Amino acid sequence: MNARPARAPSRRVPVSKSATSTSVGGVPAQERKLRTQGKKTLRKLLDAAMIVFEKRGYHAARVDDIVKVAKTSHGTFYLYFANKEDLFRALLADVSDEMTELSEQLPSIAPTRLGYDELRLWIGQFFDLYARYYPVIRAWTESEVGDSDLGELGVNVLGGFANALITRVAEVDPPVVSNPDIAAVAMVAMIERFSYYVLSRSLDVDRDQLLDTLTSILHVGLFAGSRRRPTR
Amino acid sequence: MNARPARAPSRRVPVSKSATSTSVGGVPAQERKLRTQGKKTLRKLLDAAMIVFEKRGYHAARVDDIVKVAKTSHGTFYLYFANKEDLFRALLADVSDEMTELSEQLPSIAPTRLGYDELRLWIGQFFDLYARYYPVIRAWTESEVGDSDLGELGVNVLGGFANALITRVAEVDPPVVSNPDIAAVAMVAMIERFSYYVLSRSLDVDRDQLLDTLTSILHVGLFAGSRRRPTR
Amino acid sequence: MNARPARAPSRRVPVSKSATSTSVGGVPAQERKLRTQGKKTLRKLLDAAMIVFEKRGYHAARVDDIVKVAKTSHGTFYLYFANKEDLFRALLADVSDEMTELSEQLPSIAPTRLGYDELRLWIGQFFDLYARYYPVIRAWTESEVGDSDLGELGVNVLGGFANALITRVAEVDPPVVSNPDIAAVAMVAMIERFSYYVLSRSLDVDRDQLLDTLTSILHVGLFAGSRRRPTR
Amino acid sequence: MNARPARAPSRRVPVSKSATSTSVGGVPAQERKLRTQGKKTLRKLLDAAMIVFEKRGYHAARVDDIVKVAKTSHGTFYLYFANKEDLFRALLADVSDEMTELSEQLPSIAPTRLGYDELRLWIGQFFDLYARYYPVIRAWTESEVGDSDLGELGVNVLGGFANALITRVAEVDPPVVSNPDIAAVAMVAMIERFSYYVLSRSLDVDRDQLLDTLTSILHVGLFAGSRRRPTR
DNA sequence: CATGAATGAGAATTCATTCAT
DNA sequence: AATGAATGAATTCTCATTCAT
User: How many Å does it take to go from CA D73 to C1' F19?
Assistant: First the structure.
């Protein structure tokens, strides 16, 4: 099985980016032109939501909490978002956009010291982005249930990363793994989940350790056959 | 940071598993002396909960749903469990037990074809167990928020796996990675998350493909320097 | 134009009686077997609603008001009805049933003193029924808006009366009016609206006066050509 | 009870019509000196209200809806009206005025072909007026609840019609009905309600059919004893 | 005159948990 | 043991009205 898994992650890709991409949730899809004032309030709400999601998690987060943190009123919230999920979508769209952009910047990886460093740098960027949006990502994890289409966004993002990685893995000659596409997803899984463990404080590891470990494993995984150590 | 991370995952490990027995609220105390009838009802409820968690997720699951699926009444539910979380703990304890047991069975891994096959077999067992308890695990993922102690159980389980793997990784000579303990966690992360992707149907990969991929990467990762291909 | 108008009133007749006819609103279409206790509560709620609708009207009626009058709790309300409209439907179904039954009892009308008396008796029964359900009918008037299907029930009921009357009007020989079916509806309109005026206290007329007036006009209308006075 | 019912309808007639001018809240006081611009906005709002009332009904109509249809802002609305009811009163006053005027034009009715035609013409005028203001009338029907004084306006209007008719009925010699005043109200009820049925599309009857039917019944009712058919 | 933004009281609805039978 | 019924605290959401620009 060679080519399909690559597309697999996008199996449920209906709502790629769409209108929401600009992060404007907006009253039931209306919410046109916002003046300075309006934009400020919108941002206050989004920021507040991040804080509350971080502290409470998605499900436990109350619109009331968000409103309090944003120092605005209940009514105002519904002026900008139809409900909590709507706001959440706006945040997710932001993450999604940035993640996709990052995935497109994955460099070609050489079995050299330089290649190792470049890879490390890129994983570092991923981790930083992941850390920044950690509350949103955790919330996504939480809400990733049932038939909701919320999970799809996440799947798309992961798929994006996997695809980027697949391209690089496929460039490796001679091939180390028999199914580069599946392997790519496994690697993404590792990067993602390991970052999650670290950020959730389940794991007492710092940024450098994380990067060293992930980069090593990936580099070894990619070039196992052709070289000894990344440090060479 | 070299040796400690192994313990890191258990940073929050207060309630190992006996949780169920101690934290059980008032009513469920009668859980002890259960006659045939009682046991049957208990089972019905646990099974029903699995089904509902699977379909709805933990947060969205209503006691009412569970009760309906179990074809019993509201009152009866509270005869067996103090609340939804209590029931969830019971399920988690089961998973936890079986997972721990499995982690203790991780074989010593040799850089040979046999070692590869043994590892593959073990990962297969993990995946099957993971698949069986998928609803519970997903629910755990969901509930892993805030100050609840529910997440700890999961951390313990992962820590168990990581520890088992660390032992094996440390046995490898010469060492491939500089931080075997951290690397072990990264690998567990990969196995776990990749399985999750597959089971959540985000990924169109079958069991064999999953096992091939994971085993390959792990085996390569462990013995990168000393050999070429696991298949040799 | 002769025959169509007769059917006209039923132009929108989708939900004739259906399951709701027994007046059991019921939690989203479930609400199966009710014990004595349950039935009592159901009745309390329906009665309370009549009182509140009478006093406040449909729109202004709050679930809270109903619950208070019924001396029960908010939660209980939603145990029996999905919402205010659901309860209202249950009441409407009752009215509808009784009205339909009454319409079927309209006697054949003779141009005699006896015919007059029989007609008067029947209109009296209508008025009494109308008076009994006045709160519901007024609420219906209020809610008879837009695309809701609530209005249809009422249309059906009126249509039932009109049809009954048409049959009688058509029996008259020689025919007095050219379009008996349309005329029948006009007469129903008069009976209904006049009753409404009287009951809404817009009009200071007592039951006997109402019956005398309506019966006279109807009798005259039906037999204008063949006789002088109903009293002869 | 013989003569009084004529005044009955006005039993609650405190605020004949100048209501608008007295009950107007604070802001709309500026309604006076309106320049071209202002008048245009005022009209836009009134028209919009008609449209929204038509579509949604009075209660369900939101100030927001009206404002949107009028393509103006929330703030502007309150520049012209104290609230929704205030606007509604303004519309009602218009209807009321025109209705009253029309009622004063009811011709003396003769038991002849000419009388029939004149009556038909007049009912036609009534129906057209009724049709034009249908949204307002329906809204009035809806709001005619409780202690609001809104209903009174309507009662007054009806009373006006009834009085006009009473005068004509009383002119008939020999008298057909014993209580001309009550009968007059019953007839008004019929005309009004039948028109309502037709306009609410509950009834598939066109304008001519409506006029034929109503005129026939009325003419027969008035001159039952003295003639056979209006067409003779 | 006009408008976008904000407000907050009020109403609907859900659901875990308790209770009487 | 089991169950139908009841409860009410907690939340979400709406919308008339006011305000600053």
Answer: 14
Tell me which fold the domain A19-86 belongs to: Arc Repressor Mutant, subunit A (1.10.10)
Locate tokens 């003396």: which residue?
D108
C229 neighbourhood in chain D, CB within 8 Å: 225
pLDDT digits (tens, 9 = 90+) for B142-195: 776 555 566 667 677 777 888 888 888 777 766 666 777 888 889 999 999 999
In this complex, the nucleotide whose C1' atom is nearest to the CA atom of residue A81 is: F13
Q: Which residue is nearest to nucleotide E11 (CA to C1')?
A: C62
Cβ contact A43:A26 at 8 Å: no
Record: fold of B88-223: Tetracycline Repressor; domain 2 (1.10.357)
Question: Which of D108, D130, D103, D129 minimizes the C-alpha distance to D119?
Answer: D108
Q: DSSP letters along B44-84, please? A: HHHHHHHHHHHHH-TTT--HHHHHHHTT--HHHHHHH-SSH
pLDDT in tens, D133-180: 999 988 887 776 555 566 667 677 777 888 888 888 777 766 666 777
Q: Which two tokens stand for residue C68?
A: 């208070």
Question: What's the fold here for domain A91-223?
Answer: Tetracycline Repressor; domain 2 (1.10.357)
CA distance C159 to chain D (A): 9
Spacing of B21 CA from F1 C1' in Å: 22
Give burial (CB, 10 Å; 0-12/13-18/19+) of C12: middle
pLDDT at residue number A3 = 31
Instruction: Write the class of the CATH domain C4-14+91-223.
Output: mainly alpha
- DSSP labels, C108-144: P--SSHHHHHHHHHHHHHHHHHHHHTHHHHHHHHHH-
Chain F nucleotides near the protein (CB, 7 A): 1-20
Candidates A56, A190, A214; nearest CB to B193: A190
| Strand F proximal to D44 Cβ, under 7 A | no
Specify the range with the lowest mean pLDDT, choosing from A146-155, B86-95, B110-119.
A146-155
Of B57, B178, B190, the CB nearest to A186: B190
- Write the CATH number of the domain with boundaries C24-86: 1.10.10.60
CATH code of the domain occupying D24-82: 1.10.10.60
Q: Is the pLDDT of residue C179 over 80?
A: no
Q: Which fold has domain D87-223?
A: Tetracycline Repressor; domain 2 (1.10.357)
How does the average pLDDT of chain B come out, rounded? 78
Domain formed by B22-82, architecture: Orthogonal Bundle (1.10)
Chains that touch B (3 or more CB pairs under 8 A): A
| C1'-nearest nucleotide to the CA of B64 | E15
Answer with the residue of higher pLDDT: C7 or C129: C129
The token pair at A227 is 């070289």
- Model pLDDT for residues A49-67, shown as the tens digit of each residue: 999 998 888 888 999 999 9
